[in-house]
Amino acid sequence: MLEIDDLGKSYGGTPVFSRVSLRLQAGEFVALLGESGVGKSTLLNAIAGLDTVDTGRVKIDGAEVTRLDERQRALLRREKLGFVFQAFHVLPHLNVQDNVALPLLLLGRPDPARVRAVLAAVGLEDLGQRLPAQLSGGQLQRVAIARALVHKPRLILADEPTGNLDPRTADKVMDALAAEVRREGAACLLVTHSAAAAARADRVLRLLPQGLAWPDAPATAALDAGAARPTAPATAPSGRAAASSAPPPA
Ligand SMILES: Nc1ncnc2c1ncn2[C@@H]1O[C@H](COP(=O)(O)OP(=O)(O)OP(=O)(O)O)[C@@H](O)[C@H]1O
Ligand SMILES: [Mg+2]
Predict the structure, then answer these.
(1) Is 25 a domain residue?
(2) Which of 8, 96, 176, 182 is the least crowded, having the fewest Cβ atoms under 10 Å away?
(3) 242 or 25: whose pLDDT is higher?
(4) Entry pTM
(5) Ligand 1 midpoint to CA 18 (Å)
């Protein structure tokens, strides 16, 4: 579903990350940890084709994002990707319900029942008519999550989606996210600082300046499910890029 090979990015000559390689299977839930400023959000943006990279390539469901033009990338995102941004990015002039319905409208597949279902899944069933300015930070975050899930994307990229939530609500939202991943067979890459959220993942990775390290010690209990999977691991702790089994680009 997601193939990343030797991805590297720098800002004005200062490297952010390098040698990031990763495979995510359909239905796989991977948590990404890392210190503030290490480049987690930059990496998600690069995967989504919202930001450029210096080296490497990204493939989503067989399409090489790093080779598509801007229009093709936008279409790919619309169809296959659910992105929960760290800064939400909800549209201020649309109410909650219309914000969540937007991905379906853009795909020409309006589905009010589905919109109601995802709003209920994140506990916002009564707030559909509110404008974003009338919501709390945690409620806004849940709008962003519902919007990322509504069109049943193949790949979900979520940037600290429970960062503003109390533990109980965070748990409920993680339930909804995990259920969606399992039910729809989506792949999910979740950036989080929460041990509770990471504990639900099949695999836990840590972003370091020299690449991805795994397994991550504090959440080894969560590694059992992922350990048996025949996926190529992320870049080894030594920084050596994982072997690529992907075919050459068409
Ligand atoms: N447009 C930019 N120009 C220059 N440097 C940038 C730019 N955007 C981000 N950076 C730098 O790149 C690094 C990675 O930023 P990023 O937002 O990806 O970190 P992060 O791991 O998501 O951190 P956090 O956990 O705080 O969200 C940071 O040091 C940041 O200051
Ligand atoms: Mg970030």
Answers:
(1) yes
(2) 182
(3) 25
(4) 0.84
(5) 14
